[in-house]
Fold this protein.
Amino acid sequence: MPSIDEEIRELEEEIKKTQYNKATEHHIGRIKAKIARLEKTKEERSKKGGGTGFFIKKGIYPSIGLLGPPSVGKSSILNAITNADSRVGAFDFTTLSIVPGVMEYKDMKFRILDLPGVIEGAHEGKGRGREVISVLRNVDLIVIVLDPFKYDPSYILRELQREGIRINQKPPKMSVILKDRGGLNITKVGKPDFDPDLLKSICREFGIINADIIIRQSMTSDVFIDGLLGNRVYVPALFILNKSDTREFRKAFDFLQSMGIDAVPTSIVKKRNIELLKEKIAGKVRMIRVHLIPSNAPTDEEPMVIREGSTVEDVCKAVHTDFVEKFKFATITGKSVRFPNQRVGLDHIVQDGDNLTVFLRKG
């Protein structure tokens, strides 16, 4: 009996051999649904099996993952933009674990993660690739680093796609309500373009035969499958073409331009565009400012700049570890509450411009 990976490869080969047109559109859509279903089964089995891996917990500062082939200069970039000291070498797989550093830009801080180089076949576990790419499900920005000798990002984009990571995309505007009976009903809001019969055949591949589906945008089979699965993550991405001081740079840069990729050219040797890179990273990540107000007097201190989606607990941890242990309650005046000085708990999500006062238990 073939393994799941073998089944997936066979189905992918079938797609490659099938010419895409109106007559084959439904057939290809169903094959893609079968592949997605098999990948979901594989993922569920791997979770049950456990095993070692990398785990990055989201904190108050945005996490930025440096991803790319081995030896394109990720460690050098990390050292150039942060206070880290990642080992630098001219041979593959210098970074065998995740090396963190903190990048400061204006009044903001970012956690930069130098990940081990990724090779083709990462989704099958080659070079610990699945463990590396799984980290990227929890970052706020993926920075894909290339150089003039390893400049084609196609296999990296495929590996991200296979692991359910969608870069520079938004989640599909659709909702699925499962029912006990009544069949499949697909309703469109506005004037989205899609083939309802194709979408229904994809649903049946997933065993969905009774559901109300509301669609608010045009749908390809790939986007619809992502929406049905609901386990995709959507992460912004930035491309870097390093070693811009080399003779081969122009050919690589033009190639990326032909793919519609506007890469940031950098050279660590020549210290070229380091500040520009920091600016581009900061511009890709959503940050908010929270004013910490002491309970006994107003303050003129600068606001704390943190990642969007942070909670009161995240803010407390950033101020002092005792704040969470001794936390009594907090009050907030700002966008995240209904009225001034509203009491909130640790799980309350703060918003830009909030004034936050934390009250601690005595003793």
